[in-house]
Amino acid sequence: MSKQFDVIVIGAGPGGYIAAIRAAQLGMQVACIDEWKNDKGGPAPGGTCTNVGCIPSKALLQSSEYFEHANKHFADHGITAKDVKMDVQKMVGRKDTIVRQSNDGILYLFKKNKVTFFHGRGAFSKTVEGGYEIQVTGASNETLTARQVIIATGSNARALPGAEFDEETILSNDGALALGSVPRTLGVIGSGVIGLEMGSVWRRLGAQVTVLEGLPTFLGAVDEQIAKEAKKAFDKQGLKIELGVKISEVKKGKKGVSVAYANAKGEAVTLEVDKLIVSIGRVPNTIGLNPDAVGLKLDERGAVVVDENCRANLPGVWAVGDVVRGPMLAHKAEEEGVAVAERIAGQHGHVNFNTIPWVIYTSPEIAWVGRTEQQLKADGVKYKAGTFPFMANGRARALGDTTGMVKFLADAETDEILGVHMVGPMVSELIAEAVVAMEFKASSEDIARICHAHPSLSESTKEAALAVDKRTLNF
């Protein structure tokens, strides 16, 4: 007997569970299907973000940062800390506890909002008069139908050909988050968000970390001035980053992994490491979705083909998050999930791709929104730039972290903010002001005229806005 719903959401990651909740808030009968399991076999909604991505990585970054502060920076504050040690098992256990709390929180939100949750894998079965039949395979097999289906199945880590993940020696983000001890040497292929964050965690705990990047430039998507500042800080910390490499072979041995590659000069090099993290991007996850059963169109990458409103090629079928075009970011998925639920309800959901913030949670943190200086130059846009260094900010000096800067880019004629780029302490929080400003089409003068609390890191945002007009007050 099929169970009838107004909306079925396949996947309970950030895009899926948020879409389900918003649809339920709008008065629809909603089912959400997700197959993630915890270590006891129970449901673990939240997707990659909650289970092996955003949340657990931030937990390890925080723990490792405290450890580095105790070992290297407490003395500056007059604090004597001797024989500081890291219990890796306890650190990982804390991370696991945070993940479970997040899983349980989502299950509570489903109950609160009257979303019916099914623990298992959802797949299209056939088209029926009431819309679509979805088969759930899991702890108990169920058949569901709904006129509207939202696909939010996320993404998987991309493996390097010839170096498949075993999560013991060759690691994806999953394995990198679950190491039971600090490796003596660690290799990272890919200097993107995951590579830099995980490389930073284990470097702080004592591993010798080498990051191999195929591109000739560091963080090519980041504003060039900001990327250079970040690279300088990582070099100083001892994070070894090699650019422009070509990997020729990855070979797993009894004691670790050897990576043969040509460096930027074309010289043959072999890197021997205990563990290897491969972070060369992610691929849309449509495995087992059975799209052929209903004629759902996928592209050559396996992503669901959608229009600008996240509509698939079938009536009543939508897709959001990592499984469609656009940046693979949890908050982008959330916004799309809300927008789709509202569109189904006849409202006008909206996602502005031009004001989606990006953050890399290393130390220093890197955050940005809008266009970079190199993009503006390439597009022939006339602009003004203003920067302000954290070394001139009183709160940053009190924190003992003055690395980096805030940078504003504004239209040369209208002064509208075109991009804001930051590297430094807590910029993951500071970037929100820039997002709000750009969403309201603010000018740099608007930010320059707003009173910011003193002393605060946010004053650097105000001063960078002032710098667009060459009138900083504290530098």
Automatic annotation (TrEMBL):
<keyword id="KW-0520">NAD</keyword>
<dbReference type="GO" id="GO:0004148">
    <property type="term" value="F:dihydrolipoyl dehydrogenase (NADH) activity"/>
</dbReference>
<keyword id="KW-0274">FAD</keyword>
<feature type="binding site">
    <location>
        <begin position="153"/>
        <end position="155"/>
    </location>
    <ligand>
        <name>FAD</name>
    </ligand>
</feature>
<dbReference type="Pfam" id="PF02852">
    <property type="entry name" value="Pyr_redox_dim"/>
</dbReference>
<dbReference type="GO" id="GO:0006103">
    <property type="term" value="P:2-oxoglutarate metabolic process"/>
</dbReference>
<dbReference type="Pfam" id="PF07992">
    <property type="entry name" value="Pyr_redox_2"/>
</dbReference>
<keyword id="KW-0560">Oxidoreductase</keyword>
<dbReference type="InterPro" id="IPR001100">
    <property type="entry name" value="Pyr_nuc-diS_OxRdtase"/>
</dbReference>
<dbReference type="GO" id="GO:0005737">
    <property type="term" value="C:cytoplasm"/>
</dbReference>
<keyword id="KW-0285">Flavoprotein</keyword>
<dbReference type="InterPro" id="IPR023753">
    <property type="entry name" value="FAD/NAD-binding_dom"/>
</dbReference>
<feature type="binding site">
    <location>
        <begin position="190"/>
        <end position="197"/>
    </location>
    <ligand>
        <name>NAD(+)</name>
    </ligand>
</feature>
<dbReference type="GO" id="GO:0050660">
    <property type="term" value="F:flavin adenine dinucleotide binding"/>
</dbReference>
<feature type="domain" description="Pyridine nucleotide-disulphide oxidoreductase dimerisation">
    <location>
        <begin position="356"/>
        <end position="465"/>
    </location>
</feature>
<dbReference type="InterPro" id="IPR050151">
    <property type="entry name" value="Class-I_Pyr_Nuc-Dis_Oxidored"/>
</dbReference>
<comment type="similarity">
    <text>Belongs to the class-I pyridine nucleotide-disulfide oxidoreductase family.</text>
</comment>
<feature type="domain" description="FAD/NAD(P)-binding">
    <location>
        <begin position="5"/>
        <end position="337"/>
    </location>
</feature>
<keyword id="KW-0676">Redox-active center</keyword>
<keyword id="KW-0963">Cytoplasm</keyword>
<dbReference type="InterPro" id="IPR004099">
    <property type="entry name" value="Pyr_nucl-diS_OxRdtase_dimer"/>
</dbReference>
<feature type="disulfide bond" description="Redox-active">
    <location>
        <begin position="49"/>
        <end position="54"/>
    </location>
</feature>
<protein>
    <recommendedName>
        <fullName>Dihydrolipoyl dehydrogenase</fullName>
        <ecNumber>1.8.1.4</ecNumber>
    </recommendedName>
</protein>
<feature type="binding site">
    <location>
        <position position="122"/>
    </location>
    <ligand>
        <name>FAD</name>
    </ligand>
</feature>
<keyword id="KW-0547">Nucleotide-binding</keyword>
<feature type="binding site">
    <location>
        <position position="322"/>
    </location>
    <ligand>
        <name>FAD</name>
    </ligand>
</feature>
<feature type="binding site">
    <location>
        <position position="281"/>
    </location>
    <ligand>
        <name>NAD(+)</name>
    </ligand>
</feature>
<dbReference type="InterPro" id="IPR006258">
    <property type="entry name" value="Lipoamide_DH"/>
</dbReference>
<dbReference type="InterPro" id="IPR016156">
    <property type="entry name" value="FAD/NAD-linked_Rdtase_dimer_sf"/>
</dbReference>
<dbReference type="InterPro" id="IPR036188">
    <property type="entry name" value="FAD/NAD-bd_sf"/>
</dbReference>
<feature type="binding site">
    <location>
        <position position="213"/>
    </location>
    <ligand>
        <name>NAD(+)</name>
    </ligand>
</feature>
<feature type="binding site">
    <location>
        <begin position="328"/>
        <end position="331"/>
    </location>
    <ligand>
        <name>FAD</name>
    </ligand>
</feature>
<feature type="active site" description="Proton acceptor">
    <location>
        <position position="454"/>
    </location>
</feature>
<feature type="binding site">
    <location>
        <position position="58"/>
    </location>
    <ligand>
        <name>FAD</name>
    </ligand>
</feature>
